[in-house]
Design brief:
The chain is α+β, with helices and mostly antiparallel strands. It contains 6 helices and 3 strands. Strands 1-3-2 form a 3-stranded antiparallel β-sheet. A hairpin with a 5-residue loop joins strand 2 and strand 3.
Length: about 110
């Protein structure tokens, strides 16, 4: 049998692009939390231990601009904002769950 070799080139590496999108410390926990359905900003913030408001805002904006989640604003006082994973974001879930399982098995 012949083995197919995978060559990773710096110029064509999509792995770097993926890590630019979800490589932040908080991106994967946010995606995992949003896999449960629509959530408001404060619900997300309360669900992720150790994240501060400023970092959550930054990560949510980054993921929205990359098409991982959608942000829906309602005209209420104060404004209500809900976040939902897009189809693109949903496709990340199996990978995140696999990484979580790997971490449970091999982390000290």
């Amino acid at each position: 049998m012949s083995e197919k070799k995978t060559i990773i080139s710096e110029n064509s590496c999509s792995l770097k692009e993926v890590l630019d999108i979800i490589g932040g410390k908080w991106a994967m926990p946010i995606i995992y939390i949003l896999s449960k359905g629509k959530m408001r900003f404060k619900e997300i913030e309360r669900s992720i231990d150790g994240i501060n408001t400023r970092m959550l805002v930054k990560e949510l904006k980054n993921m929205e601009s990359n098409g991982i989640l959608t942000r829906e604003v309602f005209a209420t006082v104060p404004p209500t904002v809900e976040y939902t994973l897009t189809a693109k974001g949903q496709k990340l879930l199996p990978s995140i769950i696999s990484l979580h399982s790997w971490g449970q098995e091999f982390s000290v």
